[in-house]
Specification:
Helices cover 17% and strands 34% of the residues. By secondary structure, the chain is of the alpha+beta class.
Length: 650
């Protein structure tokens, strides 16, 4: 048997079709029923034209094309050009559609299957069966992208070493060993490719298994499975996923309604001597949703409260104050938890990913679990019962959506090479299945429940699209503000905004790790992204919320600095974004360098929608009136800081 034949029955691990979507359930909000013909797939805000092997010939997302040319399988010599065939839709419901494509040439027969879900996720299985021995020198998947809609690159291997930055800032190219998730996009749209392992990939240059290169205005993504001569006599099956974005619409209105604050406790509902509890202060500070972290359970990762009476009291206290309550769901179960006994070895990710905190290690220490194990069913059942027993408003996921690298063959992960060595997989489809099942379980009980995911450095849409909001930034926690740590703006626009992905985002910052809270606000909010507060730093956020509410940004037009906000600063490190509404403007001006400066801002009245009369500019936080001359103002910054200005006509 040739080397390639040993690989080729599986180039990517497979899962049952049921893991891709749950067709019997209602289409989750805000997605719409899929539309499918033999030549086209449509879902919320996106259209995909289909060609040979049901591969996209064009994808339109947020009203712009993503592809410079059709996506194609490439071999050397070319065995695909002479294949003739046709597609048909073999199954369709509101959640999902399935296609089959069959064709042949004198040398090979081809059978392709594609399943597309309501969130736009498409999973491919393409099988090539040779009619006689064929010599191949190369086999790869090519995705030619329009450069203008492939400005940013985000990769994920479910750790904190992922690439996130502007592609031009990398010289237009990137290459690496097998990487399970790659997204390329601009500020408003994008396209992700994913696969679960490199099982069977035969490469003499594995450092270029996945690559992106820019030539003559075309950004070419390639997944290379073979880069040297092999003789093929057995079928080859290629499996991978594609998902265009934004998966749904994001809005300032949703964020203004949600206003999430993190880390309350049971004691937050206990009144002090003045009859007031912490929840009263949080509500007055503008919070509308609160999250109780892992302290709500006795053992880490359980799905039952530590004290049912106190839990019910906390829920009631939140609801009496108009607050929504989310509870913590992690990515493992404490080693000492009763539920895990006898299941640890089968449910755990291998190699182990341990967490041993200083806080109650005897009940909090755990090893990461794998979504492909029995933990999946256990967690879904626990979610169902939790929402049956208690009037909760949603869940906060901490790592639950991650397809952690796993070699645990006891639950089906890992694969063996010809020498018997076990290699890891990234069980992304199982994590996707878990998140969809939890979303369906929660929404059966409360249709407007919030599903909030903490997923620092791993913005993988297949596992996250059924959530409402994402919280990102913990990957920077080892840095401090004293180091004068910075995040390049192209990096921030790639991973932390969410507009192009279709996910409402918030920025995570611990005090002075890596920024002061005001520095974090300066960086994030000029991008329209809120910094989620804790009780101890809510006072930094409350004035910002009030200024935005006073202007009513939920009905205003958003004009970010990278699209031309209508304000030009004379300093490169000063960025100004704007909301405009009814002849008024609200400016969010940030200085992103740690030194005091005075910036000169020129205002484009037409771009800002300002009426043709004298202007009044007020500091939206202090109420101070600022001097304006010739449609320009001078604005002082103390360091890395921000100013909010409200402009109107007298």
């Amino acid at each position: 048997m040739t080397l390639l034949n040993r690989i080729c029955s599986v180039l990517f691990p497979t899962f049952a079709a049921a893991s891709l979507a749950i067709a019997a359930n209602a289409v989750p909000r805000p997605f719409t029923p899929v539309k499918a013909t033999t030549a086209q797939f449509r879902c919320l805000g996106r259209t995909t034209d289909l060609g040979q092997f049901v591969l996209p010939t064009q994808i339109v997302a947020a009203d712009k094309p993503l592809l410079n040319a059709p996506i194609r399988l490439v071999s050397e010599p070319d065995i695909f050009a002479s294949i003739k065939g046709a597609a048909k839709v073999v199954e369709k419901n509101d959640n999902q559609a399935r296609w089959e494509w069959k064709g042949e040439s004198a040398d090979v027969s081809m059978a392709a299957k594609m399943t597309a879900d309501c969130d736009g996720f498409c999973w491919y299985e393409i099988q090539l069966t040779p009619k006689h021995a064929i010599k191949l020198n190369a086999l790869r998947l090519e995705i030619p992208r329009v450069a203008a809609t492939a400005r940013y690159l985000h990769t994920s291997s479910y750790d904190w070493s992922n690439v996130s930055q502007g592609l031009p800032e990398r010289g237009g190219k990137w290459a690496d060993k097998f990487t399970p998730y790659v997204w390329l996009g601009d500020e408003q749209r994008g396209l992700a490719w994913c696969a679960e392992s490199d099982q069977g990939w035969q490469l003499k240059n594995p450092a270029r298994a996945i690559s992106v290169d820019t030539t003559n205005g075309v950004v070419l993504f390639q997944a290379t499975m073979l880069d040297h001569e092999e003789t093929v006599t057995a079928p080859i099956t290629v499996r991978f996923g594609l998902q265009s974005s934004p998966v749904k619409t994001v809005s300032f209105a949703w964020r203004a309604k949600a206003r999430i604050l993190h880390d309350i406790h049971y004691d937050s509902a206990v009144a002090g001597a003045d009859g007031r509890c912490e929840l009263d202060k949080l509500r007055e500070g503008g919070a509308k949703t609160v999250v109780i972290h892992d302290s709500w359970t006795k053992y880490f990762g359980q799905m039952v409260p530590a004290d049912a009476g106190k839990f019910k009291q906390l829920i009631d206290a939140c609801h009496q104050r108009g607050l929504k309550l989310l509870v913590y769901v992690g990515y493992g179960i404490a080693r000492t938890a009763p539920e895990l006994q006898g299941k640890h070895d089968e449910w755990s990710v291998l190699p182990l990913i341990p967490w041993d905190p200083g806080y109650k290690p005897e009940t909090r220490g755990f090893d990461a679990t794998c979504a492909r194990s029995g933990w999946n069913d256990w967690l879904v059942a626990g979610t169902e019962k939790l929402f049956s027993d208690y009037d909760l408003d949603g869940l906060y996921f901490d790592g639950t959506s991650e397809g952690w690298t796993c070699r645990n063959q006891s639950h089906g992960c890992g694969w063996k090479d010809a020498q018997g060595n076990v290699h890891a997989v990234f069980p992304m489809l199982a994590a996707r299945n878990l998140m969809r099942r939890i979303a369906d379980a929660v929404h059966r009980h409360k249709s407007d429940a919030i599903l909030d995911a903490h997923m620092s450095s791993n913005l993988t849409l297949p596992t996250l699209s059924f959530c409402d909001s994402l919280w990102n930034g913990e990957q920077f926690e080892s840095h401090t503000s004293a180091e004068k740590f910075s995040v390049p703006l192209h990096f921030f626009r790639t991973e932390f905004m969410g507009y192009a992905h279709g996910m409402d985002m918030e920025f995570l910052c611990y005090e002075n790790r890596p920024f002061t809270f005001d520095e974090a606000i300066a960086l994030a909010w000029v991008h329209g992204i809120e910094v989620r507060p804790y009780p101890g730093n809510l006072s930094h956020v409350t004035p910002v919320w009030r200024a935005l509410d006073h202007f009513d940004i939920t009905t205003a037009k958003w004009q970010p600095y990278w699209l031309g906000s209508g304000v030009k600063a004379d300093l490169e490190n000063v960025k100004v974004s704007a909301w405009t509404h009814k002849g008024k403007a609200l400016l969010f001006a940030s200085h992103l360098e740690r030194k005091p400066v005075t910036a000169h801002l020129d205002l484009d009245r037409k771009a800002l929608g300002l009426k043709n009369r004298s202007l009044e500019i007020k500091d939206a936080l202090s109420g101070e009136t600022l001097a304006v001359k010739d449609n320009a103002i001078d604005l002082a910054f103390t360091g890395m800081s921000f100013r909010i200005l409200e402009i109107s006509g007298k």
